[in-house]
Write a structure and sequence with these properties.
The complex is a heterodimer of chains A (651) and B (254). Chain A is of the alpha+beta class and 651 residues long. Chain A contains 19 helices and 10 strands. The chains are: A alpha+beta (651), B alpha/beta (254).
Chain lengths: 651, 254
C-alpha cells in the first residue's frame, strides 16, 4: 500500500502535463456541482420572489453539470490512459503484478478525487456568497446574505463525484486487466490507417445539415418553432458530426484526386496532413463546434432577453397600471369610469378601449379558421374599431365602410383583407399597437386590424364559436401610487359590476419578468462556463497529442529538404484550420438559427430583432477573442513539445 | 577534381551541462570521385553518423571543409540549405523515414513537389525509376501496407528522383532481413553501374563488400581504406573482415 501510494504520487508528478488538466477539470466540475446544488437547496433562494422558477432552472443546470462531469472526466481520463498504457506495460514487465498496477491506479484516482473535492468544495464555499449576490442582482431582489455551509450540497457533491470516480476506477481496472504487457507496450505505436471515403455518411451529413438549416429558415409560426426547433437542433448536431468526420475526409480526398491542385508544395503537405488530423479529431472538433454554438445561443438569447426587458415591459404596459376584463357583449369601459370616480384614484393618461383578439389562419390576403388554435399558419389577430383605436393611441383616423387600417407586425400584407364573405381594402398601415392587456403575448407576431365600425366586430363574433366571442376591455392609467390604486380600483369595479378585473402594475410585471429572465441568464452563464471549459480541455489535449505526432513528421521533412520555416508554416496552417473550423461552423449555425430564435424570443415578448442581432454579434466577438486566447495558450504547449523534441533528436 | 572533397574535418561536441568536450571527428580527409560506390565502416560511436550529417549539411563542422563539385557546403546560407539538399543530395535512411500520411508514390514524389515541379514532369521521372526499383505495383499503397524491403526501395526512389549528384545512405540495410538486404544492395550496385555516385555508411561487412572502396573510421579518424578492384564480392568480404580484425587488435594494443 505504501509502495502504491509512493508510485501513484510520482506518476502523477511525472505525467503532470496531462494529470494537472485532469485534476483541474475534476475540481472545476466539483466546484460547479457544489454551487448549483447549494443554491438549489438554499432556503433564501426558494423563499425569494421568483425563487421557485430559479430552483427549477437550477435543477436543470444540475442535470447538465452531472452529465458533463461524467463526459469530461471520462474524456480526459481516457486520454491519460492511452498515454500511459506503455508505462503500465513496463511496470508489468518489471515485475509489478496487474493487481499492484490496479492498486496504483486506484490510489492515483483516490488522490485526484480527494484533491478535487477539497479544492472544489472549498472554493465553492467561498464563491457561494458571490453567487447569491449575482442571483440577487440578476433577479433584482435583495437576498439576505447568510454565512453557512450547505451540508446537503457537500454530501450530494461527494456522492455524485464519487460515483463518477468509481466508474473511472472500474474502467481503469478493465484496461489493465484485458491487455497483455506486449500489447500495453505497443499500444501507442499502432499505425494509423488511411481514412477511407464514406460518401454516404458525408452526403447524409450534408442532408441533415441542409434539412436543419431549411427547417430553421422555413418555420414561420413561432408556436411551431418550439417543437421544430428541437428537430432542427438534432438534425444540425447529427449533420455536424457527420460532416466533420466523413465530409471533411471526402472533401480532402477529392482535393487529393485533383492532381493539379494537390501536387503543389503547400497543398501537398497540408491536404494529406489534414486528412489524418481530421480523422483523429473529427469527433472532438464537432464537439467543440456544438458546445460553442450552445454557448453562443445560450448567452446571446439570455442577455438579449435581459437587455430587451425594458422594451417588453413598455410594450405590454404603456401605462403604470393596466386592468382588463372580458365581456361578451356589454361594454365595461363606462363601469371603469364610474369605479374611478367612486374610488377617488387620481388617474392620468387614461387609455380605455375594447378589442377583439382571436387566432386565425393566413393564406394570401385571406384570414380563415377564426378561433381555431393549433393550425400550422396560425397568427393572432387583434381587431379594434377605429374609434377605440383613436381612444387608445390618441389619434384621429377615420375610415369609410369597406376600408381597414392594419399593423402587420413583422410581416408584409397586400392591398386587401378577406374574412368569410367580406373583403376590405387596406387604406394604410398604423404604427400603434394597443396592448391586449394580458402581459406578454405568447403567440408572437400578432397583427392589428382597425375596422371602421363596432358592428364589424359584432359580425366577426358571429363567425367564431360561442365561448370565444369575448372582447377585452382595457383600462390603463398612470396614478401616484400604482400598487395601492390598482387594488382600490379593482375593488370599486367589483362592487359596481360584480365581476373582478384582472391586471397588474408595470412594476410587478417587470419584477416577475426580471426574475424569470434573471434565472435564465444565471443558468445560461453557468452552463456556458461549463461548455467553454469543455472546449478548452478538448483543445488542450488535442494540441498535446498533435504535438507528439507532428514531431516525427517535422523531422523527416527536414531531412528530405523542407526548410524549418516552411514546415512551421504548414503545420501552423493545419493546426489553425483545424481549430478555427469549429468556430466558423458555430458562427454559421448561429446565423441559420437566428430567424427561428428571434421568433421564439418574440414569443417571450422580445421583438427587437436589431437588438438581438447586435447581442449575437457582440457575444460572438467576445467568444472568438476568448477562443483565440485559449488557442494561443494551448498552442504554446504544442510548440514547446515540438521544439523540445527536435532539440533532443539533434543531439 | 573529385565530386566530393572532405578536408581536415573536425567536429567537437560540448555537453550542455558539464562542459566536457567530445571529439567526434578528428581531422578527416578523403575524396569521392564521380561514379564511385564508397562504403564507410566503423563501429557505433566511431563518428560515422556525425560525418554523414556533416556531408548532408544537417550539421556544421567545427573546422575543415566539405566541397561538393567544388562548392563549399559551409558557405551555403541557411535559407538555401533545404533547396540545396533537395537538388544535390539524395538520402536513404536505416528506418526509411517515409511519411505514413502519404502513399508510396507521394513519398517518392515529395522532393519534386517541394521543388515545385509540374505533375507530368514528375510522373515522367517516377515511372522509369519505379520500374527499375520494382515498386510500380505498390505505388498506390501506403508505407505501412508494404514490407521493409519495399519501403526501403520507395525511399531509394525518393532519394534518386531528383537525380542527385551523390546518394548518401545511412545503414540502408540495418532494419532489413538478409534477403531484402541483398535486394537493396544489388539495386545499389545496379544504379551505381548506371553512373550514380553512392556514399554508404554501414557497420555490416556484407553491405560494405558491395562497394568499390571501403573507408574504415575509428575514433573519428580515417584509419584505413581498401579497394575492391577486380575481386568478387566474397573475396572483398574476406579482405574487409581481415582489416576489421586488424583494427580491433590494434585498438587493444593502444
Amino acid at each position: 500500500m505504501r509502495l502504491s501510494a509512493k508510485l501513484a504520487l510520482s506518476n502523477l508528478r511525472r505525467n503532470r502535463r496531462t494529470t494537472i488538466p485532469f485534476m483541474l477539470t475534476s475540481a472545476l466540475c466539483t466546484l460547479m456541482l457544489y454551487l448549483v446544488i447549494s443554491l438549489e437547496n438554499s432556503a433564501v433562494v426558494s423563499e425569494s420572489f421568483g425563487g421557485a422558477q430559479m430552483q427549477m432552472m437550477l435543477g436543470f443546470g444540475e442535470l447538465v453539470i452531472v452529465l458533463f462531469t461524467v463526459i469530461f472526466l471520462f474524456y480526459t481520463n481516457s486520454f491519460l490512459m492511452k498515454q500511459r498504457k506503455r508505462e503500465f506495460g513496463l511496470f508489468n514487465i518489471l515485475g509489478l503484478a496487474k493487481k499492484d498496477i490496479a492498486m496504483v491506479l486506484f490510489v492515483e484516482l483516490l488522490i485526484c478525487w480527494g484533491v478535487s473535492l477539497v479544492a472544489g468544495i472549498g472554493l465553492g464555499m467561498i464563491l457561494d456568497k458571490g453567487m447569491y449576490l449575482l442571483i440577487g442582482r440578476l433577479m433584482n431582489i435583495d437576498l439576505p446574505l447568510e454565512f453557512g455551509i450547505s451540508g446537503a450540497a457537500v454530501v450530494q457533491t461527494v456522492l455524485y463525484t464519487g460515483a463518477v470516480y468509481v466508474l473511472l476506477v472500474v474502467y481503469g481496472f478493465f484496461m489493465v486487466n484485458v491487455s497483455s504487457p506486449i500489447e500495453l507496450l505497443h499500444a501507442q505505436a499502432e499505425g494509423e490507417k488511411e481514412p477511407k471515403n464514406r460518401w454516404l455518411l458525408a452526403l447524409g451529413g450534408l442532408l441533415c445539415l441542409g434539412a436543419g438549416y431549411g427547417l430553421a429558415l422555413w418555420v414561420q409560426n413561432p408556436m411551431d418553432a418550439f417543437v421544430l426547433f428541437f428537430l432542427a437542433v438534432i438534425l444540425v448536431i447529427v449533420g455536424t458530426y457527420l460532416l466533420f468526420s466523413a465530409g471533411s475526409i471526402a472533401l480532402l480526398n477529392m482535393l487529393q484526386k485533383n492532381r493539379r491542385f494537390y501536387y503543389q508544395t503547400s497543398h501537398f503537405i497540408s491536404v494529406s496532413g489534414m486528412k489524418y488530423r481530421m480523422k483523429a479529431n473529427a469527433a472532438s472538433l464537432a464537439n467543440i463546434c456544438i458546445l460553442s454554438t450552445m454557448v453562443l445561443v445560450a448567452l446571446s438569447t439570455t442577455i438579449c432577453l435581459m437587455m430587451g426587458m425594458d422594451q417588453s415591459v413598455e410594450t405590454a404596459y404603456p401605462r403604470e397600471t393596466t386592468l382588463s376584463i372580458y365581456s361578451q357583449d356589454g361594454n365595461y369601459l363606462q363601469d371603469f369610469d364610474q369605479a374611478l370616480a367612486q374610488s377617488g384614484v387620481q388617474a392620468t393618461d387614461v387609455m380605455a378601449y375594447t378589442l377583439f383578439d382571436i387566432p386565425g389562419t393566413v393564406s394570401g390576403d385571406t384570414v380563415s379558421n377564426l378561433g381555431e388554435y393549433g393550425k400550422p399558419d396560425m397568427r393572432l389577430f387583434e381587431f379594434i374599431p377605429v374609434g377605440q383605436y383613436n381612444n387608445a393611441e390618441g389619434t384621429d383616423y377615420t375610415l369609410e365602410p369597406g376600408q381597414v387600417l392594419i399593423n402587420p407586425g413583422s410581416d408584409s400584407w397586400g392591398s386587401s383583407l378577406t374574412i368569410g364573405d367580406r373583403t376590405w381594402s387596406v387604406a394604410g398601415t398604423v404604427d400603434g399597437f394597443p396592448p391586449s392587456g394580458l402581459g406578454i403575448n405568447m403567440m408572437g407576431n400578432p397583427m392589428l386590424v382597425v375596422l371602421p365600425d363596432e358592428a364589424d366586430i359584432a359580425w366577426l363574433q358571429t363567425l367564431v364559436p360561442e365561448e370565444q366571442r369575448n372582447v377585452t376591455n382595457i383600462f390603463a392609467f398612470n396614478s401616484p401610487d400604482p400598487d395601492r390604486d390598482a387594488g382600490v380600483l379593482k375593488d370599486a369595479f367589483e362592487q359596481i359590476t360584480g365581476a373582478r378585473p384582472f391586471g397588474d402594475t408595470r412594476q410587478n410585471f417587470a419584477l416577475s419578468l426580471q426574475s424569470m429572465y434573471g434565472s435564465f441568464l444565471f443558468v445560461g452563464i453557468f452552463v456556458s462556463i461549463l461548455f467553454v471549459m469543455a472546449s478548452v480541455l478538448i483543445m488542450y489535449y488535442k494540441q498535446i497529442s498533435e504535438g507528439f505526432e507532428d514531431q516525427k513528421r517535422f523531422d523527416i521533412m527536414t531531412r528530405v529538404g523542407l526548410d524549418n520555416r516552411q514546415i512551421r508554416k504548414t503545420i501552423h496552417f493545419q493546426v489553425l484550420a483545424v481549430f478555427f473550423l469549429p468556430l466558423a461552423m458555430a458562427g454559421i449555425h448561429v446565423a441559420f438559427a437566428f430567424p427561428m430564435i428571434s421568433k421564439m424570443l418574440a414569443l417571450l415578448g422580445m421583438g427587437d430583432i436589431t437588438l438581438f442581432m447586435i447581442t449575437c454579434l457582440i457575444v460572438f466577438a467576445i467568444f472568438a477573442i476568448l477562443y483565440v486566447i485559449v488557442y494561443g495558450l494551448t498552442s504554446r504547449t504544442y510548440y514547446q513539445l515540438v521544439k523540445g523534441m527536435s532539440e533532443e533528436t539533434e543531439e | 577534381m573529385a565530386l566530393l572533397e572532405v578536408r581536415d574535418l573536425i567536429k567537437i561536441y560540448s555537453s550542455r551541462f558539464s562542459g566536457t568536450q567530445v571529439q567526434a571527428l578528428d581531422n578527416v580527409n578523403f575524396d569521392v570521385q564521380e561514379g564511385e560506390f564508397v562504403a564507410i565502416m566503423g563501429e557505433s560511436g566511431s563518428g560515422k553518423t556525425t560525418l554523414l550529417n556533416i556531408l548532408a549539411a544537417l550539421d556544421r563542422p567545427t573546422a575543415g571543409k566539405v566541397l561538393l563539385n567544388g562548392r563549399d557546403l559551409a558557405k551555403i546560407r541557411g535559407k538555401e540549405l533545404a533547396a540545396f539538399r533537395r537538388s544535390h543530395l539524395g538520402f536513404v535512411f536505416q528506418d526509411f523515414n517515409l511519411l505514413d500520411t502519404f502513399t508510396n508514390k507521394d513519398n517518392a514524389l515529395l522532393p519534386l513537389v517541394l521543388a515545385k515541379e509540374k505533375y507530368p514532369v514528375m510522373m515522367k521521372k517516377l515511372t522509369p525509376l519505379a520500374e527499375t526499383l520494382g515498386i510500380s505495383s505498390i505505388l498506390k499503397k501506403y508505407p505501412y501496407e508494404v514490407s521493409g524491403g519495399q519501403k526501403q526501395r520507395v525511399s531509394i526512389a525518393r532519394a534518386l528522383i531528383t537525380n542527385p549528384e551523390i546518394l548518401l545512405a545511412d545503414e540502408p540495410t540495418g532494419a532489413l532481413d538478409s534477403r531484402s538486404s541483398e535486394d537493396v544492395l544489388n539495386l545499389f550496385t545496379r544504379i551505381n553501374q548506371e553512373g550514380q555516385t553512392i556514399l554508404m555508411v554501414t557497420h555490416s561487412m556484407k553491405a560494405a563488400s558491395y562497394a568499390g572502396r571501403v573507408l574504415f573510421i575509428k575514433d573519428g579518424r580515417v584509419f584505413h581504406q581498401i579497394y575492391k578492384g577486380d575481386r568478387s564480392s566474397s573475396e572483398f568480404y574476406e579482405d574487409i573482415s581481415r582489416t576489421l580484425t586488424m583494427m580491433s587488435r590494434k585498438g587493444e594494443r593502444a
